[in-house]
Specification:
By secondary structure, the chain is an all-alpha fold. The chain has eleven helices and no strands.
Length: about 160
């Protein structure tokens, strides 16, 4: 227990001195559940979007959408609307606002960033599945396939196999 607390404290002190260490923000998120959303947001911001797949995976898997919403304006300011829209879409999807979520995923899907586009297509496919639009879902999964980040490959292949 003491080892855990000392590692957390060391990381926090190091990040206060030099916050531009995205991988260490990810490590802090793993160690401190109460600061997880903020640490994930900092990991995304300091990586300039490079850690998007890892951050999105955590936010979705751990249902951190409410805690993460406070950081969306900073994400939009630094990385742009396509990045903030995908996180807003997750929050709306959890609230059950599927149409609004779809519109936000479409904003992210218009990005020139291949991972962001692929993730948007994957999330739209998930919405289509929820709505019983299996043919449309399969089309979006095929669009996502080429550029899907490793963190989401299993989810994509599972959904694709289920639909085929």
């Amino acid at each position: 227990m003491l080892k855990f607390l000392s590692r957390k404290k060391r990381l926090e002190q190091e990040l206060k001195k030099n916050p531009a260490q995205p991988e260490k923000w990810l490590a802090l998120a793993e160690l401190d559940e109460s600061a997880m959303a903020g640490a994930l947001a900092n990991a995304l911001l300091y990586s300039e979007g490079r850690l998007l797949p890892k951050v999105l995976k955590k936010v979705r898997d751990l249902a951190l959408h409410r805690e993460f919403e406070a950081f969306i304006p900073a994400i939009e300011k630094k990385l742009g609307k396509p990045y903030s829209a995908i996180f807003q879409g997750i929050a709306e999807e959890y609230r059950g606002n599927l149409t609004k979520a779809r519109n936000l995923y479409d904003v992210s899907g218009a990005s020139a960033e291949p991972h962001l586009k692929a993730l948007s297509n994957l999330f739209i496919a998930s919405l289509c599945i929820k709505q019983g639009l299996d043919g449309m879902a399969l089309e979006f999964l095929k669009k996502a396939e080429k550029d899907i980040p490793e963190e989401f490959r299993l989810e994509l292949s599972g959904k694709k196999k289920a639909l085929e």
